[in-house]
Request: fold
Amino acid sequence: MSSVADQLNNVLLKTARLIELCNALQEENELLKLENKHVKATLDRAKINEADLTEKLRVLKLAKSIEGTSEKTLDIKQKINEFVREIDKCVVLLKK
Reply:
């Protein structure tokens, strides 16, 4: 039979190992939280970039469609100005 002192020593050793494991897991958790934060920031930037590119594509498609028509230059300028104002509104919303 093990003596009480041996059993107590065994419990202390296992407790020390558990504390070390807990500390290591806490450090890993902090690193993973930091990595997650960076990934989310990258994703947010990618979403903004995607929205910007989608808007540019829409404007380009519209410009192509205007190119084929015989509308007056003034009408075309007014449409372009409307699109610029709409893009500016979108940029303001994205910055909020």
